[in-house]
Specification:
By secondary structure, the protein is an alpha+beta fold. Among the domains are: about 90 residues, GIY-YIG endonuclease; about 55 residues, Orthogonal Bundle (Arc Repressor Mutant, subunit A), CATH 1.10.10. It has twelve helices and eight strands.
Amino acid sequence: MELKFEGNSLKSGIYKITNKINGRIYIGSAKRFKSRWSQHAYSLKANKHQNKFIQADYNKCGTEAFVFEVLEVTSGDRQERLLLEEQYISQFYDKGQSCYNLRRKTASREGCRSKNPEETKRKMSFSMKEAWKRMTEGTKQKRSELIRAAQTSPASKERIKKKWENEEYRQKMKQFSKQNGGWNRGLKFPEQSGVNHPMYGKKHTEETINKIKETILHSGRKPWNKDITGYTMPPCSDEKKEKLRIAHTGKTLSDETKKRISENRKGKNAGKNSSGSKIYEGFILLAPDGTTYNRIECLTEFAKEHGLNMKCLWKLLKGKTPSTRGWRLLK
C-alpha cells in the first residue's frame, strides 16, 4: 500500500484510501494517521476488515493497488473530526458504487470501551477465557511457549528488575499479596512438580548455600524457618473429613504400597517395645544441660521424654537442621 503522509504521520485529521485500479475511495478520520493505517493494513491482511467492499477489492487487486493519503490535518477533538469526516463522505457517498463507505453517518472506534474500568476488565477477562477454551491443545502449547520465552528474555528480566527497584511498586505488590493470600494462591504447575521440578533429586552446593546465607544477612531479612521448632497441622473441618472419607471408600492398597508405607514408618511412630522401632547410634547429641547421648532406641519415646518434636529431632540427627530447642549434634 502506497503511503502519502506528507510528514503528518503522527497528526490527526481526515484521510482517504484510493483503489488505483477502479478509482473507488474510502474516507475516514484518525487520531494518528500512522496508527489508523496500521489498523487497516492488519485487518485487510487478516481478511477480516469490517468493510466488505474494500476487503473484496483487496483480495482481488492486492495491497499494491491501494493508496493511503492525508486529506486534511485537524487540531480539534474527536467530535470535530467526525463532523469534518461526514462532510467529506457526503461529497462522494453513492451507496457503494465509487465510494467504499457504507453510510453517511460516521462511526469511530475511539472511546468505545466502557467508562467503568472494572467493567471493561471483567468483559475482557471473560472474552479471553472463552477464546482460550476454543483453542486447540496445539495452539495453547504454542501460545504458552511464546509467553514463556517473552517473560524469560533479557529485556523482560531487565524491565521486571527496574519495576521492583521502585519502592512504591514493591509496597503495592506486598499489599496485593496479603489481600489475596499470596501471589500464587490457587495456582498449580503440574508440569513443574514432582519429578518434573528443576530441583528434583538435586542439592545446593556449599558455595550456593553460603551465598544464600550472605544475601539474607546483608538484606536484614529474617530466615523463614528461624525459631521454628515444629509444625502443627491445622484442624480438619467436618466437611473435609467427609470428602476424604468418600474419596477413600472402597479403595485398597497394594502389597507393594503397604510394604513401602511400613518401611517409611519404621522408627517414627513405632512404640518402645515394638520390633519395628529403629535404633539410632554412632553420633554425639548434646542436650541444653550439657548431657550427651550416643544411642536412641526409639525416636518417638525419646522426643516425648525430653519435650522435643519428633520430626525436628529426626532432622537434627540427619544433619538437616543445626539445632532444635537447644539440642545440637556434635558428631
